[in-house]
Amino acid sequence: MKLSILDAGHCLSLALTREANRRADTSLVIEPSISISVERLREIMPDALLVPPLAQPILAEPAAVEAHAEAVEACLEACLTLDIPLVWCVSDQLYEDGLSEPIDEHVIPEPKDESLQRLIKTGDRIRELHARHLIVRLGPLFALEGNEAWLADLIVRLLNGEEVRAAEDIIFCPTSADAAAMALIGMLQQLQYGADAWGAYHLAGTEPVSSYTFASMVRTQLSTRLEGLGEQIPLGALKALNHHHDHPLRRVLNCRRVLEAFGVHQKPWRLEVDRMLDAWCQTRTEKPE
Question: Ranges for the RmlD-like substrate binding domain (predicted)?
Fold first, then answer.
């Protein structure tokens, strides 16, 4: 199976590259930008085109959101022209106000923010025009490298002694970029071999948590590992922020459908963080030749 992924520096693109390199049944063609022409797509002729998510669209400038939406719609047109499946990954932030219960796949986001509404229109176009599509809604991605690699950014700030501010009243499911990449390739392999399961899916980690609790756990584990390496580094402090004083905003994705359709189990974010921090420590202790 040959896949094409856009936005080469994105943490999900890098994770897909690592996963494809570990497999003998998958090859990956990486494009540097968020867009691709029909001519270039015709040269590659992948079995699917993947578009990584725009991270934190709630905080992005309207122009950036518009540019992302236009790029995805251009990818849609190219895929329709060549009859190539399209995979668009989107942030759980499209569920702007969250829900008190875990959010099922059939619940289409209805944000009030105009920029987020622009992304919903793009999703509507994909659903309307292209039968062979995946819209994959992800929790906040974390990884050790790449653009929007939350964990990597957090480690750097803590090591630099910076104060890290994080909301404690917004609940979501942190999502390992590596786990998401493994799941996406597995899903596409099954679709390639005849599974009739196109549509929208939720793909996130288990154990809903706030960004403050996530950052606290990372800080504690990082401190413990540094001590084990014999390093005494004063880490930056954490400050809890509260944006929803009445009750926490819950943006928890119900990932039942991806389990039923593809057998994909969500990986606990704590185990993925532990694994990544172990890998970070190993890299830190390696000596250059």
Answer: 63-279
The secondary structure of the chain in percent helix, strand, coil, rounded to multiples of 5, reads 45, 20, 35
CA distance 112 to 118: 11
Tokens matching residue 267: 């990986």
3-state secondary structure of 67: helix
Q: Which of 95, 64, 107 is nearest to 170 (CA)?
A: 95
Query: What does the CA dihedral 123, 128, 134, 135 come to, rounded to 10 degrees?
Result: 20
Per-domain residue ranges of the chain: 2-142+175-205+252-267
| Tens-place pLDDT, residues 212-253 | 999 999 999 999 999 998 998 999 999 999 877 678 899 999
pLDDT in tens, 25-40: 999 999 999 999 999 9
pLDDT for 12 equals: 97
Q: Please give the Cα distance from 138 to 241 (Å, whole number).
A: 23
Q: Rounded CA gap, 194 and 197, in Å? A: 9
pLDDT one-digit tens code per residue, 140-165? 999 999 998 999 999 999 999 999 99
